[in-house]
């Protein structure tokens, strides 16, 4: 587990997270710390360890100006946050399979024969999956990453807000990404809150759980 969460009570990290819409515009997160946050969030699980999440960090005035007309009613987050993190699911994540599995063998985390067997199965199956299945898998895994990123950011002392209210059919093209390959999942604003987000109410477990 990463140090920032170890140094915080995990329950307080989970319960303390708020969705924030207005940030301190004077706060900028360094590239080094943003990379650390993304790396820690990447410890999230994924199907066959394919790690399909891809993050576009929009933190320049030019980038935010390009993103602004695509944000619908979420322009306050875009205008005031330290960065807007556009989360995509890579439908061709299997292209990294050999790199991932070879690294696992080199680091002593997987026997070579297991690598060979799993790679053979994946590389014969993944490329032939229907596009809609590839998108679904990529979005599910990338959502796990996104939730972990928000918790990691909170452990680092930052606030976030996940958003689905944006022009999902335009955002990849706007930033010169392959629309066929990269499926938009959500956008997460990140920074230091200037207005504390409201604490929200959750349904009790009895309302959301079925026992058989």
Automatic annotation (TrEMBL):
A Pfam family reported for this protein in Swiss-Prot or TrEMBL: Nitroreductase
Coiled-coil region list:
none
Query: Keyword annotations for this protein?
Result: Oxidoreductase
- Location of the Nitroreductase domain: 14-192
Keyword Endoplasmic reticulum attached: no
GO MF, one annotated term: oxidoreductase activity
- Per its UniProt record, what SUPFAM superfamilies does this chain match? FMN-dependent nitroreductase-like
Which domain of life does this protein belong to? Bacteria
Q: Write down the InterPro entries for this protein, in alphabetical order.
A: Nitroreductase, Nitroreductase-like
UniProt family annotation: Belongs to the nitroreductase family.
Which protein is depicted?
Answer: Nitroreductase family protein
Q: Which organism is it from?
A: Paenibacillus dendrobii
Its taxonomic placement starts with: Bacteria, Bacillati, Bacillota, Bacilli, Bacillales
């Amino acid at each position: 587990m990463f140090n920032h969460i170890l140094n915080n009570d995990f329950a307080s990290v989970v319960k303390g997270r708020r969705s924030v819409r207005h940030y301190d515009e004077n706060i900028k997160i360094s590239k080094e710390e943003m990379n650390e946050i993304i790396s820690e969030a990447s410890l999230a699980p994924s199907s066959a360890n394919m790690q399909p999440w891809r993050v576009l960090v929009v933190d320049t005035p030019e980038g935010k100006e390009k993103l602004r007309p695509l944000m619908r009613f979420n322009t306050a987050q875009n205008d005031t946050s330290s960065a807007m993190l556009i989360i995509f699911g890579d439908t061709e994540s299997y292209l990294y399979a050999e790199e991932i599995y070879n690294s696992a063998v080199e680091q002593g985390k997987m026997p070579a024969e297991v690598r060979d067997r799993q790679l053979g199965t994946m590389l014969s199956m993944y490329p032939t999956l229907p596009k809609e299945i590839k998108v679904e898998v990529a979005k599910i895994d990338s959502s796990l990453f996104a939730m972990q990123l928000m918790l990691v950011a909170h452990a680092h002392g930052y606030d976030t807000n996940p958003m689905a209210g944006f022009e999902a059919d335009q955002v990849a093209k706007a930033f010169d990404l392959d629309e066929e390959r990269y499926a938009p999942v959500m956008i997460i604003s990140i920074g230091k809150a200037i207005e504390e987000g409201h604490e929200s109410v959750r349904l009790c477990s009895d309302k959301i759980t079925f026992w058989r």
